[in-house]
Design a protein that fits this description.
alpha/beta; ten-stranded mixed sheet; five-stranded parallel sheet; 17% strand; binds threonylcarbamoyladenylate; binds magnesium ion
Length: 356
């Protein structure tokens, strides 16, 4: 048991006192949950192996799942990575601070507990005033996975962090809802061509435009198949999963939405007829389709606004578990642009998939 202090902070203008207090906790080897523009992170001093070990314990995270190092400026980049390729600077200069994580050669100052024994380190500069102030005040790079209990959906609101980590961490900085709601895009620049390891808030198209060439998008980055350990250690762990069994309905062609809606409705009826309590995860345009047949209908956003869907996704999966239904059926979206990040999360969260 740890005594947890929760500070409400203004995301735009965080109180200096709260951030200073949290930074001191980081320097002293403690754990601080903080907001980023993607999801909340659970941070510790990246140079302090004992402090980072505590992250694994607090989250119940498998020790072979490496942790992203967060930096506040380019001078810190050279403290954590070495032999940094040109492409890394090209991307970072355009996209940092922001939801991009780069896989780079590890500097020996970064302990193996951060990288789970790998010679690579994942690095990013978050675009959130609270995160940047915290790292600057602590004056050390901050190792931080998402601030959820291992296996649960990532936290996009302070109360999600309180729910998962209260009495496991020293400080929670609660700045309300995060902007993107899905995690950063992870790129391996050490392979040729560069490889997408996890789709995220920045799209593949954003990154290819800046690099001026294509990046490889393996099946596992789409949320399909299994990650090969050598390609993407850590990607093999189950993620984002609600406790409620989730069935994802995917369309061959999202231009023919009616087929998808009919297949989803049939799945709902099928479970209802077998006596199950059923929830549907749907959209502003389509939720009416299930009224009167499903026990609950959750609207994750509008089909016309994938940013809204991404922002609400994890909160919706957490709400789902509070409904006490036996099964949930979710309509998919097209896995293009930010939709790729959404579908990667939903496919990994699902227990089975149906093609409409
Ligand atoms: O947006 C984000 O990236 C958030 C915020 C807090 O920054 N962080 C986040 O961390 O999503 P986490 O730990 O939940 O996901 C990081 C992923 C894991 O799947 C891990 O396996 C992978 O990054 N990763 C970290 N270091 C790696 C490395 N050296 N090689 C391969 N994968 C790595
Ligand atoms: Mg995570």
């Amino acid at each position: 048991m740890v005594v947890t202090k929760v500070f409400r902070v203004d995301p735009a203008k965080p109180s200096v006192d709260a951030v200073r207090y949290a930074a001191r906790v980081i320097r002293d080897g403690g754990l601080v949950a903080f907001p980023t523009e993607t999801v909340y992170g659970l941070g510790a001093n990246a140079f302090n192996a004992k402090a980072v070990e505590r992250i694994y314990v607090a989250k119940g995270r498998p020790l072979d799942n490496p942790i992203i190092v967060h930096i506040c400026d380019f001078s810190q980049l050279e403290l954590v990575a070495s032999r940094i390729p040109e492409d890394a600077y090209r991307l970072a200069e355009r996209l940092w601070p922001g939801p991009l994580t780069l896989l780079l050669p590890r500097d020996p100052r970064i302990p193996y507990v951060v990288t789970a024994g790998l010679e690579t380190v994942a690095v990013r500069m978050p675009a959130h005033p609270v995160a940047l102030e915290l790292i600057r005040e602590a004056n050390v790079p901050v190792a931080a996975p998402s601030a959820n209990l291992s296996g649960k959906p990532s936290p996009t609101r302070g109360d999600h962090v309180v729910e998962d980590l209260y009495s496991r961490v020293e400080v929670i900085l609660d700045a309300g809802e995060t902007l993107y709601g899905v995690e950063s895009t992870i790129i391996n620049l050490l392979s040729d061509p560069p490889m997408l390891l996890r789709p995220g808030a920045y799209t593949v198209e954003d990154i290819e435009r800046i690099l001026g060439r294509s990046i490889a998008v393996p099946e596992f980055a789409r949320g399909l198949g299994e990650a090969e350990k050598a390609l993407a250690p850590g990607m093999k762990h189950r993620h984002y999963a609600p406790n409620t069994p989730l069935i994802l309905v995917e369309a061959e062609d999202y231009g023919e939405l009616q087929r998808l809606l009919d297949a989803t409705r049939r799945a709902v009826l099928d479970y209802k007829m077998r006596g199950f309590k059923v929830a549907v995860i749907s959209y502003a345009e389509t939720y009416k389709h299930y009224e009167g047949i499903a026990d609950s209908v959750l609207v994750v956003g509008s089909r016309g606004n994938i940013y809204e869907v991404a922002r609400n996704l994890f909160a919706t999966l957490r709400t789902l578990d509070k409904l006490n239904v036996d099964v949930a059926i979710m309509e998919g979206v097209e896995d293009k642009g930010l939709g790729l990040a959404v579908m990667n999360r939903v496919r990994k969260a699902s227990t089975s998939r149906i093609k409409a």
